[in-house]
Amino acid sequence: MDLSQNSCGMGMRPREAGMDGAPSPASPAGLSAYVVVSQLLGLTLLVTTGAWLGRYRGGVAWHSPLQFNVHPLCMVLGMVFLQGDALLVYRVFRHEAKRSTKVLHALLHGLALLIALVGIVAVFEFHQSKGIPDMYSLHSWCGMAAFVLYLLQWLLGCGFFLLPGASFSLRGRYKPQHVFFGLALFALSIAVCLLGITEMLLFNIRDSYSHFVSEGVLANTLGVLLVAFGLVVGYVLTRDDWKRPPLAEELALSMDFKTLTEGESPGGGSQ
Ligand code: HEM
Ligand code: HEM
């Protein structure tokens, strides 16, 4: 990855240089700046979550009254920060081989899923130990939907793009759905976190929230940071001229496929 050089990075431009000692290919300068900002925002939102839970909510521990706090920490880390970074890999590692980028994308989503699972188990166990009913709130309904659909998206992603069974054209037909629902799930995850933050503030500081107490301001700031992270990642992913240019060998493969099938190509190089 090269985040320092300037180039236009437009359209179907094949890779300019290999990894064999030749100068590394350039990334568009604007892309590099946006990626850096996204990572700064991501780290700030993790620190803000830690500061909120550590300073105002007593910290984090399993099998204790603090077990609930594992939930927001894991959900912000998994469903937002790691999910966001998994989405960015096709832009950041834009000149690496497609297969390695795909594996990294799948691994980061897998790690995000595992961490989110720990967060979900934490809140269910906590509710059970306190005798609190499950799944009564809008946050829990949308949260459960986001988690289950995220798991489904991951399984479908592995099935279509990683395992050898799916044909080239089947992958091409599934890809737009994968991209749309992936972006939608990322947006839903952030919305679910906002609902969770509001709910937690109303449980804990209902009487003082309207007096701008510092806990309320800090948690609201976390919400704004989550929105900002989502907007920056969303912008990077939807800029057409920042899309990953297919490598020369992927273009050749795509042309062979086009010739073989008389016109039907999934586009964007190998899937
Ligand atoms: C995408 C991220 C998130 C998902 C998928 C999610 C999912 C869930 C689910 C399924 C429950 C229901 C547990 C049960 O009924 O036993 C729940 C509860 C809860 N969550 Fe989250 N959550 C997320 C993020 C957050 C965040 C960031 C916070 C707070 C900062 C939060 C605060 C709460 C609270 C206070 C509850 C207990 C009340 C309730 O059941 O609504 N959640 N969450
Ligand atoms: C829950 C998990 C997943 C989510 C939310 C997700 C989401 C996304 C999104 C939003 C994109 C578009 C990114 C871009 O425009 O650069 C994308 C692309 C892609 N994803 Fe996933 N994905 C998930 C899991 C997987 C898995 C497990 C694989 C298996 C390898 C996979 C393979 C791909 C491929 C091949 C692309 C197309 C890249 C391209 O040609 O531009 N995804 N994914």
TrEMBL record:
Per the entry, what this protein does is:
Transmembrane reductase that uses ascorbate as an electron donor in the cytoplasm and transfers electrons across membranes to reduce monodehydro-L-ascorbate radical in the lumen of secretory vesicles. It is therefore involved the regeneration and homeostasis within secretory vesicles of ascorbate which in turn provides reducing equivalents needed to support the activity of intravesicular enzymes.
A Pfam family: Cytochrom_B561
- GO CC term, one of those recorded: chromaffin granule membrane
This protein's name: Transmembrane ascorbate-dependent reductase CYB561
Keyword Iron-sulfur (UniProt): no
The record's Gene3D superfamilies line, in alphabetical order, gives: 1.20.120.1770
GO molecular function terms attached to this record: metal ion binding; oxidoreductase activity
Q: What is its main location?
A: membrane
Its keywords, alphabetically, are: Cytoplasmic vesicle, Electron transport, Heme, Iron, Membrane, Metal-binding, Translocase, Transmembrane, Transmembrane helix, Transport
**Cofactors:** heme b
Question: What residue ranges are annotated as transmembrane?
Answer: 31-53, 73-93, 105-124, 144-166, 178-197, 217-237
Catalysed reaction equations from the record: monodehydro-L-ascorbate radical(out) + L-ascorbate(in) = monodehydro-L-ascorbate radical(in) + L-ascorbate(out)
State the InterPro entries in the record. CYB561/CYBRD1-like (IPR043205), Cyt_b561/ferric_Rdtase_TM (IPR006593)
Query: What organism does the record attribute this protein to?
Result: Otus sunia
Bilayer topology reads: Multi-pass membrane protein
